[in-house]
Amino acid sequence: MTASPMRWLARTVGEHRRAFASTLVSHLLGQLAALGIAVTAAWLVGHTVAGRPTPLGAFAGILAGLVLVATLASWWETYVAHDLAYLLLAGLRGKVYDAITRTSPSRRLGRRSGDLSATVLSDVETLEWLFAHTLAQSLTAGAVLTLGSVLAALLDPRLLIVPLAVTACVLTLPLWSRRTSRRHGEELREATAELTADVIDTVQGMRELTAFGALGRRREMLTERTRRLARVQAANAGRGGLEAALLDLLVAAAAAGTLLVVAALVRSGDLPLAHGPVAMVLAAGSLGPAVQVALLLKEYGTLRAAAGRVHGLVTAPAETPPPSDGPAPAPAPDLVFDDVHFRYSADGPEVLRGVSFTVPHGRTVALVGHSGAGKTTCVSLMLRFWDPDRGRVLLGGTPLDQVADLPSRITVVPQDVHLFAGTIGDNVRLGAPSADPAPALARAQLALDPDTAAGERGAMLSGGQRARVAIARALAVDAPVLILDEAIANLDPENEARLADTLQAAARDRATLVIAHRLSTIRRADHVVVLHDGRVAEQGAFEDLAADPEGHLSRLFRLHPAGRGEADGARNGR
Fold first, then answer.
1. Would 3-314 and 335-409+479-571 be classified into the same CATH topology?
2. Per-residue DSSP letters for 1-20?
3. Which 3-state string (H, E, C) describes 466-497?
4. Cα dihedral angle (238, 243, 244, 250), rounded to 10 degrees?
């Protein structure tokens, strides 16, 4: 694990010092009690074999007390260790969610939703093993190993010859395979993320897969993904099994070697017979904690991969920093693009090149252009998904990066509507939790009860109903700026005309920007801005722009010589 994620994890654990201290103390008590039981039993056996008098009642009381301590410590450790782990997991999931919120849709993130889901669920869950079963246990194992070695050395330093040599091999065994472990951990994480992402894509695209008869091919792809994951899991398990077998071999060799050393010391008279079993327990028993640490380190690769992914996401810089203090926008604000330049990556082409236009309060502006002209990019900048590279977007004279609570001031009806599982009312209240959804639904001309189930991604509703729920959701916020991204494209002409009148009435109290592909929508706008190749090619009233047969609007919609029509590329352009 790199130093940076390790320090970050240490700081994360440090936020719960008392819980970690309880885990440490409980595990240490349990380990010391277990060592005490073994030593006491060995002492009793040694004195019995040597024919020395042994107070059985006292020994029985000591053993019973140590067993009770070990039992209670084990129960306590199970409780506090998992309590610590779940506290840390809850905090990590919150940090991951905050990171996704902060960086999405970041230019740097570049990850599929399934990959992020794997980070949120699988990677964070993997770290539960680190928090609950690794950190405190490694520290206490080291303490018990040291104590056992010191006690064995007090009996005879030669008792440590074999155990210390084997302990060194046991502790370094995971380091011998660390590169393979790291590679297996990365491959396991990648294969899991790919399969998760593809399963999510499959579930979300089931309609399209069914409609195009692609379910069989999709099944084959998922089968291959599953086989790849199984191969990686088998390789990782094979490596882990080999390490476990080597550990068993080393422990057996240590036990046999220590037994021979103890036997030689007893035969030579350097070690009393009564002390032989105790010496055996202290010398060979100290290997137990070493093996425990080695088994924990065996998961190094998987833990490193998970921690690296979570750390990378949590520490990813925000694409749009939080708003700084600035003057509050005017109560009836205009939305202004002032010489805006923007590109999606540092070495990519400029998508917007000096775009300037104004959406006045109480007016409707239509933004039109061919596919790739920059219309959706303008909307993303208005919502502060990103900030301009140069230039400014202002709301009521205040730059957007200084406007607090922007979602309450600018709301959008997207062309691709996402509805959440729950009721229609839940979806309408998304931006206004305390709002009554019924009036907004009535204004959106959707005659459905707010308690009607929407289904996952709005599956229980038609396309037109989903569009009207999105419109009602935007109207419920009652923001001073409304963005309509072809909001009524899924409606029939009659309902489109009625809803257009409703939206036009709502536009009198706000600044409204319409991403338009239909002439019927553009004609209703007070002002038209035509984008071409990332620039404002022309703007003005519809009648003025349409009167120029060589103008961009006329060519875009083929208005001349017939005077009516729509360009094929304009209908679905972004």
1. no
2. --HHHHHHHHHHHHTTHHHH
3. HHHHHHHHHHHHCCCEEEEECCCCCCCHHHHH
4. 150
Rounded (5°) CA angle 29-33-37 = 175
Q: State the Rg of the chain over Cα.
A: 35
The tokens describing 159, both together, are 């008792």
**Whether 173 contacts 253, CB under 8 Å:** no
Residue type, 254: A
Closest CA to 300 of 547, 5, 522, 97: 5
Coil vs helix vs strand at 460: coil
Cis peptide before 437 (omega within 30 of 0): no
Instruction: Give bridge partners of residue 484 from the DSSP assignment.
Output: 413, 514
Domain assignments of the chain as residue spans, ordered by start? 3-314, 335-409+479-571
Give me the pLDDT at residue 190, please: 79
Collapsing DSSP to helix, strand or coil, 108 comes out as coil
Q: What angle, 0 to 180 degrees and rounded to 10, lies between the N-to-C axes of helices 178-204 and 161-176?
A: 40
Q: CB neighbours of 196 closer than 8 A, spacing ≥ 6?
A: 114, 115, 117, 118, 122
Q: Could you tell me which residues come within 8 angstroms of residue 163 by beta carbon, excluding any fewer than 6 positions away?
A: 149, 152, 254, 258, 283, 284, 286, 287
**Confidence category of residue 1, pLDDT binned at 50, 70, 90:** very low
- pLDDT per position as a tens digit, 218-245: 899 899 989 999 999 898 888 888 888 8
Taking only the tens place, the pLDDT of each residue in 294-337 is 766 666 667 777 777 787 777 777 667 667 666 667 677 899 99
Burial class (CB in 10 A: 0-12, 13-18, 19+), 478: middle
Predicted confidence at residue 368, as pLDDT, reads 94
* pTM listed for this prediction: 0.68
Calpha distance 349→344 (Å, rounded): 8
CA dist list (Å): 516 to 74, 259, 334, 370, 530? 67, 87, 20, 11, 10
What sign for the dihedral angle of Cα 502, 503, 504, 505? positive
Level-2 CATH architecture, domain 335-409+479-571: 3-Layer(aba) Sandwich (3.40)
Angle value at C-alpha 259, between 257 and 260, nearest 5 degrees: 65
Q: For residue 36, give every residue at least 6 positions away whose Cβ sits within 8 Å of its Cβ, in sequence order, or none.
A: 66
Please give the CATH number for the structural domain made up of 3-314: 1.20.1560.10
Percent of the chain with pLDDT strictly greater than 90: 17
Closest CA to 78 of 27, 36, 35: 27
Amino acid at 84: L
CA 234 – CA 187 distance, rounded (Å): 12
What size, in residues, is the chain? 574
Q: Kindly indicate the confidence band of residue 481, based on its pLDDT and cuts at 50, 70 and 90.
A: very high
Residues 434-465 as b or e (16 or more Cβ within 10 Å = b): ebebeebbebbbbebebebebeeebeebeebb
Burial class (CB in 10 A: 0-12, 13-18, 19+), 235: middle
